[in-house]
Design goal:
About 40% of the residues lie in helices and about 20% in strands. It is of the alpha/beta class. The protein folds into three domains: about 300 residues, Polyphosphate kinase middle domain (polyphosphate kinase like), CATH 3.30.1840.10; about 180 residues, Endonuclease, Chain A; about 190 residues, Endonuclease, Chain A, CATH 3.30.870.10. Strands 14, 18, 19, 20, 21, 23, 24, 25, 26 and 27 form a ten-stranded mixed beta sheet that branches. Pfam families: PP_kinase, PP_kinase_C, PP_kinase_C_1, PP_kinase_N. GO terms for molecular function: ATP binding; metal ion binding; polyphosphate kinase activity.
Length: about 725
């Protein structure tokens, strides 16, 4: 075993100072060019998403879905990352960059790369996925493709369902240029007044509540769709009677939706947040997407009125906004999708008899339970645990953190039921969860009205940890039942996000969570946790100590390895620690979904570092940290990515997994992910990612997610036999 202080996240001050000295001494020996640009690395991640849409071996509706995911991802990237970079440049604030280049150069590179990706995205749709859908009997057509009777049917639909909700807005001395909301789809229309001969301009917003693709009636099993903006465009005469339509073009604006709240300067966080949400709607323009056929007169007018530069214009083939392809997910064509997978109930949580009800508390008392979503059910584990706690007369208190959840969530309803049943219920709601702020405020107030104690965390920090703590009286003694997860308490995303959750009745974990919740809801400041590593005070140094322990073991000639699975690997201190470990001979394996600033092409520095990325039907979301520890493995799971915000500006928690079967399961998953026989992307020179999905003979490599489904089924059957 390594020394106790590695297990404890509370570290003595003297030890901290000595450890910092070691870090600084080694930093000076590492090359200056040791980091990849984080923003360009994010674009490389979205490029991997696009490569899934390009994969002809995937079901075609899944390929369309990946196109929609790419578009949605890129929107958020512009609204937050590019917007934040521009804001800092304009206001003169320091722009964090770890690659030694000016912020303006970084912004230029981002713009170039984003242009290339958006053009490629549009080509994949028009030249590849759209024809493949048509071949499968799903056509997205243009007005020119329609027969007269089809146009007549669509005109009836337009007159009855579309025309009444359209609002053309003129631009003239009496009508200033209208506000263009972020991500809305719009038509720029230039017309000539037949009476005066004057040219006029009008803006027409495509109503977002209407279907993005309008179904064209057909006599056979084929389905055909027309983009709604084309239907509107072809019937502009009804909107501008007596006018000559000169030009009409589709455009779309992206605004700055990054949020800045000075929490220490506000008396009421909710009110400040609501004001900031209102301001977000009117954020400055960041990107203007236009159809490739837009004329210069119309474009110049938009540039002038929107106060945006031509550098921020993205000229693309129609249709714009391919997020609309999400609408195809409702089609009943299972043969064009991944094979259906129904999450299984984890074996310890299965009811003793058919149609019976499992006793979640009894199962957790018997043994720690590690559940792997979505292969194993969130509903029959986390939701069932909370529902049983809400109605159990022996449960005295429930404490839970909530970062993102659905508005109709059974999680929220269970907390309300618990409060109404007279239990002490504490919900720590993170109202600053990006793009979920408004929804979180709504259900936080719903919880308050039901008698739940709702708190909003610590000033200046986001509470991102995934914790659920239940206190139950058993034979006159209070007992803790805990859940620590890697993903949000959200039943909807649990079906597509890959995550782990640990259920335990371990007394030490219970004491750690009691102290942590006291810190989050009150004024207690805890410095020591036994089974947890907690940010922002202790997590960074706890991980650095673990990595450095492996470095020292390698130096002593002992086997040493570090394995990390995260969404993002950006933090320079963690990366430098991994470089130093690599230099000492430690085998470093990093499994990252998204951003990675770590390089694998630095001779003498990263020779022992391997980086893989896996994308597929599920979003890889769990975080795992595994250390060889001279044969006594130390493995943690939790909520933290290796980013500044997670380690320094968020409350995060990792829990150490101790059961041998669980350690073996996590190790086997990592073995599979890093195997050369598994399909994945490999990080190589200059930050380039190369997909390896077939072997030298062209045979497909192992799909990790499909393999995991099979293994979970087999493991479940084996446990049932026991």
């Amino acid at each position: 075993m390594i020394d106790t202080q590695v297990h404890d996240s509370g570290l003595g001050d003297a030890d901290d100072d000595d450890f910092d000295g070691v870090i600084e001494a080694y930093d000076s020996q590492l090359p200056d060019n040791r980091y990849l640009d984080r923003e360009l690395s994010w674009l490389a991640f979205n490029k991997r998403v696009l490569e899934l849409a390009e994969d002809i071996n995937l079901p075609v509706l899944e390929r369309a879905n990946f196109l929609a995911i790419f578009a949605s991802n890129l929107d958020e990237f512009f609204m937050v990352r590019v917007a934040g970079l521009k804001r800092r440049i304009i206001t003169g604030l320091a722009v964090p960059t770890n690659v030694g280049r000016s912020p303006q150069d970084v912004l230029t590179d981002l713009s170039t790369a984003a242009h290339e990706l958006q053009e490629r995205h549009a080509r994949v749709w028009s030249e590849d996925v759209r024809p493949a859908l048509a071949e499968a009997g799903i056509e997205v057509v243009s007005w020119a493709d329609l027969a007269d009777d089809e146009r007549s049917d669509l005109y009836e639909y337009f007159s009855a369902q579309v025309f009444p909700v359209l609002m053309p807005l003129a631009v003239d001395p009496a009508h200033p240029f209208p506000y263009i909301s972020g991500l809305s789809l719009n038509l720029a229309v230039r017309i000539r007044n037949a009476r005066t001969g004057r040219q006029e301009f009008a803006r027409l917003k495509v109503p977002p509540m209407l279907p993005r693709f309008v179904e064209v009636k057909t006599a056979d099993a084929h389905v055909r769709y027309l983009p709604i903006e084309e239907l509107i465009s072809e019937n502009l005469d009804d909107l501008f009677p007596g006018m000559e339509i000169l030009e009409h073009h589709t455009f779309r604006l992206t605004r700055n939706e990054d949020m800045v709240i000075e929490e220490d300067e506000t008396e009421n966080l909710i009110q400040a947040l609501e004001a900031e949400l209102l301001r977000r709607r009117f954020g400055p323009p960041i990107r203007l997407e236009i159809t490739e056929d837009m004329d210069d007169v119309t474009l110049d007018l938009l540039l002038d009125e929107l106060d945006i530069t031509e550098h921020d214009v993205y000229r693309l083939p129609s249709p714009l906004d391919l997020r609309g392809l999400f609408a195809l997910s409702g089609l009943d064509r299972p043969e064009l999708r991944y094979p259906a997978h129904v999450p299984k109930t984890a074996t310890p949580f299965q009811p003793p008899e058919q149609n019976g009800r499992a006793d979640i508390f009894a199962a957790i008392r018997k043994e720690d339970v590690l559940v792997h979503h979505p292969y194993e059910s969130f509903t029959t584990s986390v939701v069932a645990f909370l529902k049983q706690a809400a109605r159990d007369p022996h449960v005295l208190a429930i404490k839970q953190t909530l970062y993102r959840t659905s508005g109709d969530s059974p999680i929220v309803e269970a907390l309300i039921d618990a409060a109404e049943n007279g239990k002490q219920v504490l919900a720590l709601v993170e109202v600053k969860a990006r793009f979920d702020e408004a929804a979180n405020i709504v259900w936080a107030r719903k919880l308050e009205k039901a008698g739940v104690h709702v708190v909003y965390g610590l000033v200046g920090l986001k509470t991102h940890c995934k914790l659920l703590h239940v206190i139950r009286e058993e034979d006159g003694v209070l007992r803790s039942y805990s859940h620590i997860g890697t993903g949000n308490y959200n039943p909807k995303t649990s079906r597509i996000y890959e995550d782990y959750g640990l259920f335990t009745a371990n007394e030490q974990v219970g004491r750690d969570l009691t102290r942590l919740f006291n810190e989050l809801s009150g004024y207690a400041i805890e410095k020591k946790f036994k089974r947890l590593l907690v940010a922002p005070l202790h997590l960074r140094k706890g991980l650095l100590r673990q990595i450095d322990h492996e470095r020292r073991n390698a130096g002593a000639g002992k086997p040493a390895s570090v394995r990390i699975k995260v969404n993002s690997m950006v933090d320079e201190q963690i990366i430098d620690a991994l470089y130093r470990a690599s230099q000492a001979g430690v085998k470093v394996e990093v499994w990252v979904r998204g951003i990675c600033s770590l390089r694998t092409d630095l001779p003498g520095v990263s020779d022992n570092i391997t980086v893989r990325s896996i994308l597929g039907r599920y979003l890889e979301h769990s975080r795992i940290f595994a250390f060889h520890n001279d044969g006594d493995p130390q493995i943690y799971i939790g909520s933290a990515d290796m980013m500044h915000r997670n380690l320094d500006r968020r409350v995060e928690a990792l829990v150490r997994v101790v059961e041998p079967a669980h350690l073996a399961e996590l190790t086997a998953l990592f073995d599979l992910a890093m195997a050369d026989t598994t399909s994945s992307w490999h990080l190589g020179a200059e930050g380039e990612w190369t997909r390896r999905s077939t072997d030298a003979d062209g045979a497909p490599l192992v799909d990790l997610q499909e393999k995991t489904m099979t293994q979970v089924q087999r493991r479940r059957r084996a446990r049932a036999v026991r």
